[in-house]
Structures are given as structure tokens and as C-alpha cells.
Amino acid sequence: MNRRLFSTVRLKPDTTSMMAIGVVVAVGWLAAFPVAGQAPVPRAANRNTAKPYVAPRTPDGQPDLQGFWTNATYTPLERPKGVTKEFFSPEEAIEVMKKAALEENEQTEPGTVADVHYDFTQFGLDRSQGAMAVNLRTSLIVDPTDGRLPPLSEEGRRRAAERAAARKTRGGPHDTVQNEPLGSRCILMDRNGPPALAGAYNNDYQIMQAAGYVMILTEMLHDARIIPLDGRPQLPPNVRQWTGSSRGRWEGQTLVIETTNLTDKFAFQGASENMRLTERFTRTADDTMRYQFTVEDPSTWTRPWSAEVPWKKTIGPIFEHACHEGNYGLYNTLSGARAEEKRAAEEAAKKGSLK
Amino acid sequence: MRTRAVVLGGVVGLLLASVPMQAHHAFSAEFDINAPIKLQGTLAKWEMINPHSWFHVDVKNPDGTTVTWMIEGGSPNQLIKVGVTKTSLKIGTELVIEGYQAKDRTNKAVGRNLTFTDGRRVMLGGSAGQAATPDPGGR
Q1: N or C, which end of chain A is more exposed by having fewer CB within 10 Å?
Q2: Cβ of A9 under 8 Å from any chain B Cβ?
Q3: Is residue B92 in a domain?
């Protein structure tokens, strides 16, 4: 029997939401999602809905985006090959989510690389065990309309080749700590961005607003973006930061954040440090927020591109993701690589002495 | 082990490719696929920390000596959200762990399956049966 241990987010009956409880409930999703009322319409057509949602206000009059949110999704950034339409029907979308949830719950085969892991399901990390907005889109990318990243510019292709060549000169992935991925080093993960894109788990954010500022805390890996709203200029161009320099403003109901001053060490989707990012946060219901972003980087892509994903209210508080403090994995990976090298060297020496 | 989940048919042509788990690090780089282990021991300490929790388990050798193993588990964030906290799993609990030993061959392993001695799974999960007791104070 499945045992329900979850504090459930209260959901309006007419929202496209889920708070699924493991495999058993995953199978019962079809009945659980009241999505029929949501027509698969593009952004522009959303304005046709009878009464646009108006977010509550903070004491100083800003639309109130505060609280705990998740951008967890099964929808991929790029539209999968073989899928030609922009939207699933609600029934199709639910089938897709059910299948993805079941795959996530499946046991891996002992003795395979995929099995070398703790059980995600047992630790409550499957996406189906948390809040998630139902997304009828077949890709997060909404522009270009084919749902795919635009072609690389000539400069983008050249830089990609240069980066690949440079990687080869740095040795193996576990030769030095600097060769380990940024996430393994507790520096930055895809959930951080910017832009914020969900990973497999811990896709939670906390938004707080104060006069003149908005703060977006990313659960994993702990970053708090503190964004001024007072119209001040971006940092000088010679100041480069992992998460760039962000400045915000309100356009009606929408919080618009522009980010520049990134570094090529992060290279979101292969972008250059010249990438310019515009994010838009718009509450569309008590428990849902539309997150849109546009990436402009002519030194990487032949044209700008945009994506969109709904964020869902979730429960808090967020447990501090003090990543460095418990990051034994990095040590173990490096010491494991050294031990393997030693074993290989001893093996080679043994073979040599037998000749 | 649970049985494999039922495979859905019907709209296969429309289904998305599954999104791979983007975990904090590559587990097969830390732990050795060629060194599967099965241990039984007593929980001595649970480091409920990020990015991964660690269970310290005292395992008795046949000669009567005790060795402490460190077992890697999942990030505690979601557990806390659903009410499982450090106090939910009592120190002294007897656990059975199946997993893979660290590549550096020290007494560390990833806890593929964590069960009580009667076979019940320790945490959550779809077919967990009885799990660690939720602690409302941790919400």
C-alpha cells in the first residue's frame, strides 16, 4: 500500500495542477487532472479569457509574487523529433506525464551504470511526488515556433569547436577538480540559470519583495538573486558574474528582469558572455505563475529565442542547500579516480614483470 | 525490489523522450559498478545534509569488530518537506543496505536500497509500505 506522507498544496479545483503521490496516484492522474477547461492556446490568445487574473498587491503596491514556487516539469526544452504540434490535447499531455512519472519510478537493472544510485523514489525525489503545473506545450521553447534552438551563428559554431578543443587539452573529467562540472563543485546548476530551468528534483524557488528590490532564492544550489527595481544601470561591462547583473522593472502585472554581464564559464546552452537575457514573471492564478524568457546572443545564435514554463505554488520552507558543507561526493570522485589509476598502474606493472 | 512499472500503450507516438535525471554529480564516477555490496548494521548517525544525505552505519564483522560505513542517500530537502526529518529515523535502527562501494574502496557506498530487517523500505516511495514516521515538527 502506498502511504501518504505529504502535506498537500491546496489547489483550486479548476486549475491545471497536480500533487501526485507516488506510483499509485501517478496511475490515477487521468482522473485527477481537471485540465479539460484549459484550451491549448498560444500566449496571445490567453488574453481572450473572460477575466484576466489580477495578482494581490504588496503593501507598497507591487503585484505580489511572493512565496514558494516550483518550475518542475516533464516538458523538454526542445520539441522532441517526431512531434510536430505545438500543444498536446489535455488527454495527451496527461498520458505523457503519466508515462514520464512511471519511467521515473521504474527500478533500474542491478549491475548497470544507471543502477549506481540511491533510489530517487525512496527519497521522495521523483517529480511526481511534488507539485507540478500541467503544461500542454510540447516544448518549453515557444519561439522559433518549431520548438527548437535556432541554428548557431558562424561565430557560435567556431566558439563551440574552440571550446571542445580546449576541453580536450584539459585532460579527463576527473583529472582535476576544475574539470568537474559546475554542479558537482557546488557552483551553479541548471536550476540557477539564469534563466531558471528545472532539473530532476529540488526545483524550488522562493520570491521575496521589499521596497525597490525583489529576491529570488534558488533552492539548488543556494543562490539568492537580489534584483534592484529602481532603474539603476547594469554593472560596468568589465564586472562579470556567474549569474550576471540583473535589473528589474514592472510592466503592468509582469515583473521584467534583464540580465547581462554573464561569464563564458557558465555558457547557458553554449551561449557567450554577451548573452542578454530578459525574464518575465506574471501571475496567472493564485497558484500559478507564467515564466517566460528570451535569449539574445548574436555571437551564438542566428536569432533570439524564447521559452515559457508555468511555475506552481509549492510548500516551504526551503531547506538551506548548503552544498559545499556536505559535498563528500567531490572528494570521493577524485579519490576514486586516483585509486583506479593506481590499480591500473599496478596491473600494468604486474603484466610488465611477467614478460 | 519492486516490480517494474506497467508500460502504457495507446499514445506512444506522441510521448516525449524521457528527461534524464540531472543529478548533482555522476554516481558511477564516485561508486564502483563492479563492487556491489550488501550490509546489515545499526544506524549510528544520519547526516541530513546537502547535496546528499549520509547514513553512518555500524557493521559488525564476523570476528566481533565493528566497522562504520558511510552510505550516501538522497538530498534531504524533499524528505523534510513531506515530514521526514532527522528524528524520524531513530539512531540504533537496524538497517539492510544494498548498494555499490566507493571507487576508492574505503568504507563508503551508495545506498541503492535501504530497508529494515523485515524488508520494509526505510523512506518514502510508491510502494514503501510503512516508512519512517513523519515528524510534523519538521514541516
Answers
A1: C
A2: no
A3: yes
Nearest to A100 among B18, B22, B106 (CB): B18
Phi-psi group of B105: left, alpha or beta (phi > 0 → left; psi -120 to 50 → alpha; rest → beta): left
Residue B72 forms part of a structural domain = yes
Report yes or no on A215 lying in a domain. Answer: yes
Which distant-in-sequence residues (6+ apart) come within 8 Å of B112 by Cβ?
Answer: A110, A115, A116, A117, A118, A119, B97, B98, B99, B100
CATH number at residue B54: 2.40.50.140
Q: Is A287 part of a structural domain of the chain?
A: yes
DSSP at A350? H
Q: Residue B105 falls within a domain, yes or no?
A: yes
Q: Percentage of chain A surpassing pLDDT 70?
A: 86
Domain extent for A126: 17-318
The mean pLDDT value for A311-326 works out to 92
The alpha carbon of residue B119 is apart from the nearest alpha carbon of chain A, in Å, by 14
How many separate domains does chain A show? 1
State the pTM of this model. Answer: 0.83
Longest dimension (CA), chain B: 59
For this complex, say whether ipTM is above 0.85.
no
Domain span at residue B65 reads 31-117
In a domain, B12, yes or no: no
Which positions 154-193 of A are in contact with B (Cβ < 8 Å)? 173-174, 180-181, 183-184, 186, 189-190
Instruction: Give the chain B residue whose CA is nearest to the CA of A115.
Output: B112
Residues of chain B with pLDDT under 50: 1-21, 125-139
In this complex, do B23 and A2 lie within 8 Å of one another by their Cβ atoms?
no
Distance from CA of A117 to the nearest CA of B (A): 6
Please return the burial class of B64, using the count of CB atoms within 10 Å of its CB with bins 0-12, 13-18 and 19+: exposed
Provide the domain count of chain B.
Answer: 1
Test the B interface: residue of A25, A85, A109, A117 with most B CBs within 10 Å: A117
pLDDT in tens, A188-237: 988 888 999 998 889 999 999 999 999 999 998 888 999 999 999 999 99
Residues A327 and B30: beta-carbon distance below 8 Å: no
